[in-house]
Amino acid sequence: MDKILELYKTFLDPMKRHKRYSVLSDGSRESIADHSWSVSVLALKLGDFFQWEETDELIKYLLLHDLDEAVIGDIPYNTQKTNPGIVRVRKAANKATLDLLPNSLKTYMRSSNLSKRTKALAKFCDKLDWTLQTITPYEIGSVFETVQMQSHYLDEFFYKSRTLFKDSTAGELEFLDELEEILKNYTKREVANV
């Protein structure tokens, strides 16, 4: 029972309280827990759609994939990418997080336990969540800036997704093409309504 209380106090409560840099459609910031839940639901749906054999492992991993943010907070991707010191801090926090976790949960947090394709789907779901959030309109700047920003994010997302899924089946690539068309049309319609 003590371990459950410690898990809650150390990780679960901070994940609900700590905010990420991402902004939701109502202008508020999402919590780490909001993000982990959303990414996991996307994985559940896509795992079903692709009939992925490792869907359960994928969801368990995604529920915990940003657990270290309960300790160090959210660090925007671009900041991590351009600052090697922050990458080292995040790796150290990840290791410290693993050390604090009960053994039964450690396995789920290690992406090394996932197949290459499942890791790609995990990364895709993580980026898809952020991309869907980014293209959901809310009051920022002019309509032109919004269209330009959304178009840029979608182009970047689908370029990176095709790189992630370079060894994919024809069905998965067809899915990406359809999703790209749907999201670009959605963006145009939403912006036209602003």
Structure write-up:
- The structure is a single chain.
- This protein has 194 residues and is mainly α.
- The chain has one domain: Hypothetical protein af1432.
- It is 74% helix and 4% strand.
- The protein has ten helices and two strands.
- It has helices at 2-17, 32-50, 55-64, 69-72, 77-82, 84-100, 103-109, 116-135, 143-164, 170-192; strands spanning 19-23, 29-31.
- The chain has a two-stranded antiparallel ribbon with strand order 1-2.
- β1 and β2 form a beta hairpin.
- α3 (55-64) crosses α8 (116-135).
- The longest helix has 23 residues, at 170-192.
- Residues 140-145 have low confidence and may be disordered.
Q: What is the straight-line distance between the termini? A: 51 Å
Coarse morphology: globular
User: What is the typical, i.e. mean, pLDDT?
Assistant: 81
Q: CATH topology, which one?
A: Hypothetical protein af1432
Instruction: Let me know the number of strands.
Output: 2
**CATH class category:** Mainly Alpha
As laid out across the biggest beta sheet, the strand order is 1-2
Oligomer: single chain
Biggest sheet features? 2 strands, antiparallel
